[in-house]
Design goal:
alpha+beta, 5-stranded antiparallel β-sheet, 4-stranded antiparallel β-sheet, 26% strand, elongated
Length: 317
C-alpha cells in the first residue's frame, strides 16, 4: 500500500467536527427541555385535578352527610318551637336545651366566633370558627346512626347530641385542621349518658374555616340569619327554622407551584363565606393547596316554619 492510499483511508474515516458536536448537543438539550416541560405541565395538571377531586368529594359526601344529620335536629321533640329555652331543642344553645339536670360547659354548645369564653380554631385572619351542637331522638321505625357511626336503636329513650367543630389534625402541623363531630347521649333530665365532649370522628380531613348562622322568621315576609351570640342577646327570641353553613375546604394533596398561574395571584387567599370576606393567614397562604368555599342552607324538618296570626276572616254571617 503506498502513501497516497494511506492518506485517502485516514481522510475518509474522520469523525464529527466540533461545530457539529455543539449543534447536536444544543438540539438534544432543546428536545430534552421540551420533554421536561411537557412532563411538568402534565404532572401539575394531574395534581390540580386530583386536588380538585378531593375537594369535590368532600363537598358531595362529607358536607351532604352533615346536612342530612342537621335535618334530624329536633326529631322526637313534641315542641316544634326551637329557641334557647326549649326543652331538648334541636339546636343546643344553653344547658336548658339539654335538660334540668345538665351542667355542660357552654363551650360545648352552639357558639359563634365572638361568644364569651370561646376560641374556635381557624386559618383565617381575625375570624374564628363557630361550633354547632344539635339534638334529636330516634322515634322512627328503623335504626339510625349518629355522626360517629354508633347505632341509635328505634324507640331509644335517650336524646342524641352531636357537636360539629374544628380541631387540629392528630400529628399534623399548626395549620392542619379538620372538621370533627363528637356524638353523645343525655336522658330526659339532661344527665349525660355518653359524653359528647371528646375529639370525635373526622368529617372533613382538611378545612380552613367553619361558620354557622341561625335562620329565624320574624314575620311572614322576612327571614333573618344571626350568629349564635347575637341570637342569645335578643329579648324576644324568634323560633329557629333554618341553619346556614359556610366552609372553606382545602385539598390534602399540595399543588406543584406555578408562579404564573391564577392560583398564585394575590387573590388566591381571599374567599367570601356567608357574605363576609375571609383571608387566609400568612402561613396558610404560603402552603400551596387547592381551596374552595361552600355554603349550605338547611331547613329543619321538625321546626315550626312560621306562625300566621291576626288574619281577618272573610266569612260573613
Amino acid at each position: 500500500m503506498n502513501n497516497n492510499q494511506v492518506s485517502h483511508f485516514n481522510n475518509s474515516s474522520s469523525g464529527f467536527t466540533l461545530i457539529e458536536l455543539i449543534i447536536s448537543l444544543v438540539l438534544g438539550l432543546l428536545v430534552s427541555a421540551a420533554v421536561i416541560q411537557v412532563y411538568i405541565i402534565s404532572a401539575r395538571t394531574s395534581v390540580v385535578q386530583q386536588s380538585a377531586s378531593e375537594v369535590q368529594d368532600t363537598t358531595i359526601f362529607a358536607l351532604q352527610a352533615v346536612d342530612d344529620h342537621i335535618r334530624l335536629a329536633n326529631l322526637g321533640n313534641p315542641i316544634s318551637n326551637i329557641t334557647s329555652t326549649t326543652p331538648h331543642s334541636g339546636i343546643v344553645l344553653t344547658t336548658n336545651n339539654l335538660g334540668n339536670s345538665n351542667a355542660t360547659d357552654e363551650k360545648y354548645l352552639t357558639v359563634s366566633a365572638d361568644s364569651d369564653g370561646w376560641t374556635g380554631l381557624s386559618n383565617i385572619v381575625g375570624i374564628e370558627s363557630d361550633q354547632l351542637t344539635i339534638q334529636y331522638k330516634n322515634i322512627t321505625s328503623a335504626s339510625l346512626y349518629d355522626c360517629e357511626g354508633t347505632e341509635i336503636a328505634s324507640g331509644s329513650s335517650d336524646w342524641v347530641v352531636e357537636r360539629y367543630f374544628i380541631r387540629k389534625a392528630t400529628g399534623g402541623g399548626a395549620t392542619d385542621l379538620v372538621l370533627a363531630c363528637s356524638a353523645g347521649r343525655v336522658d330526659e333530665e339532661g344527665v349525660i349518658v355518653t359524653a359528647f365532649t371528646g375529639n370525635g370522628e373526622i368529617i372533613i380531613p382538611a378545612i380552613e374555616q367553619f361558620k354557622v348562622l341561625l335562620g329565624t322568621i320574624t314575620d311572614v315576609n322576612q327571614l333573618s340569619y344571626l350568629p349564635a351570640s347575637t341570637y342569645l342577646t335578643l329579648t324576644e327570641k324568634p323560633a329557629i327554622t333554618t341553619i346556614k353553613l359556610g366552609v372553606i375546604v382545602r385539598s390534602t394533596t399540595p399543588l406543584i407551584e406555578d408562579p404564573e398561574s391564577e392560583l398564585a395571584t394575590e387573590d388566591k387567599g381571599k374567599f367570601v363565606v356567608l357574605g363576609t370576606e375571609q383571608k387566609l393567614n400568612t402561613v396558610s397562604m404560603n402552603e400551596n393547596y387547592y381551596r374552595r368555599s361552600y355554603e349550605s342552607t338547611i331547613t329543619l324538618r321538625s321546626a315550626r316554619v312560621m306562625s300566621v296570626t291576626g288574619l281577618k276572616s272573610n266569612v260573613t254571617s
